[in-house]
User: What shape does this take?
Amino acid sequence: MENQWQYLKMLVETGKLPHAFLFSGSNGSENKEIAHDFIKLLHCQEKDFSKKPCGACRSCADIERQMHPDSVLIDSQEEEIPISKIRELKDCFSLKPFLGQIKTAVIANAHLMNREAQSSFLKLLEEPKGNALFILATEYPEMLLPTILSRVEKVRLFTVSKTKKEDQQNKFCKKTTQDFTRLAESDLGYRFEAAKELSGSPQLQEVLQIWMGHLREVLLLKAKNPENNMNLNKLAETIKLIQRIHFLLATTNVNPRLALETLMLGI
Ligand SMILES: [Zn+2]
Assistant: This one.
């Protein structure tokens, strides 16, 4: 996130702002939050650029209270953003900035704009009046018209912690999948030893889910390729068996080690 923020600041400092941004990549509230901070930065009255947004000047305070005359926030709590909201935005943007040099609008959850609203917004993008900046924030950019997407500068916001977490998760997934392959190739002695170890793991259910996911993928892949002589039925049976063990562990007091040993006999 820090990199993207520095990039956005650089655009402001060098006067290279586009007319519209699309903030995506993170979840809805994070996309909105950074859009909000960026709007503050644009309107902030602090002289020292490095201290913007100061959070203390009138502009910063007005934006915080959503009362800034040159800043519009559309943050619909409804199921969709209707065209009437975009019409209001148009009216507001037909006037010159009241306080500063620029007018800004953030459309949070922009994917909620219905068809009409998106078409209307597209016209606004095509005929920018004066110094205006629009920010669309959404987790689902693919729900916007391609003609909108082609007219906005896309900024993907990944929080460091999220990326790190995903990275750890991917590593865990990979290791768990490799463990399964090794088990399938090993003798019963090795498998039972693994069952004993795994039965005490707090991640047991997660491991079983990863195994199921992995085997489903293998099954789909093999099914598409009929020349492959791997036994599809055996694969399907193994998935069912893991499913059953997973279910038993989640819903009954079955002994995890015994349940896993049954599984080990079947893979
Ligand atoms: Zn300020």
The chain has two domains: 2-158, 163-266. The first strand starts at residue 20 and ends at 24.
